[in-house]
Amino acid sequence: MTERQPAAAFPPPGHNHKSCVELALERAERAFEAKGLRLTELRRRVFEEIAGSHHAIGAYDVLERLGAKGTRLAPISVYRAIDALLSAGVIHRLESRNAFFACHSAHAADRDQLILACGQCGRVAEVPGRSVFEAIGRALRQARFQPDRTVAEVTGICGDCRAR
Ligand SMILES: [Zn+2]
Ligand SMILES: [Zn+2]
Ligand SMILES: [Zn+2]
Q1: Do residues 58 and 96 touch, judged by C-beta distance below 8 A?
Q2: How remote is the CA of residue 108 from the centroid of ligand 3, in Å?
Q3: pLDDT in tens, 114-150
Q4: Which CATH number applies to 15-106?
Q5: Which ligand has the nearest atom to the CA of 162?
Q6: Under CATH, what is the fold of the domain 107-164?
Q7: Which ligand is nearest to the CA of 118?
Q8: How far is the CA of 126 from the centre of ligand 3 (A)?
Q9: Which of 49, 85, 90, 126 could covalently link to 113 via disulfide, CB atoms 3.0 to 4.6 Å apart?
Q10: Which residue spans of the chain are classified as CATH 3.30.1490.190?
């Protein structure tokens, strides 16, 4: 299966973000289908809020934005939708900020991706980092340490912000 992917981890400012969202939505539909689940109306709307930019947003912001559009929801409904989107792999959690961002690349497992967060424009991107996780795995085995979660987030300044 071939998938179109954005050329850069951080797409250039002024890119057609509508097409990012469309692609991400298509992938989300397939991901839910593959798990025998449905991308319900609520899940889709939550996903669209999160995918609306390349920034990470918190659950409360999702709730507020939907509220501003006239959809008042109980926080628990939004949390549940976010959990479903997380486990389908179509959004990820930016652990350091407890916020969520949409996945814009077609990768297999979360643990293969490094997460880059720009402190200037606030965008979040993913890059392949399998060898990093393999090295961490080796170090953990040597330490006889059983991990439950490995977080690989790098904060810094993206190329577009540096060029400014
Ligand atoms: Zn975009
Ligand atoms: Zn991803
Ligand atoms: Zn930036």
Answers
A1: no
A2: 26
A3: 999 999 999 999 999 989 999 999 999 999 999 998 8
A4: 1.10.10.10
A5: 3
A6: Dna Ligase; domain 1 (3.30.1490)
A7: 3
A8: 13
A9: 126
A10: 107-164
Query: 77: Cβ–Cβ under 8 A, 6 or more apart, which residues?
Result: 42
Q: Tally Cβ neighbours within 10 Å of residue 141.
A: 11
Q: Are 115 and 107 in contact (CB under 8 A)?
A: no
pLDDT at residue 50 tops 70: yes
Ligand with smallest separation from the Cα of 51: 1
Report the distance separating Cα 130 and Cα 64, nearest Å: 36
β-pairing verdict for 99-102 and 91-94 = antiparallel
Which residues are 41's β-sheet partners? Answer: none
CA distance 128 to 113: 5
Q: Report strand pairing: 153-156 vs 113-118.
A: parallel
Ligand 1 mean position, distance from CA 51 (Å):
8
Q: What is the DSSP letter of 55?
A: B
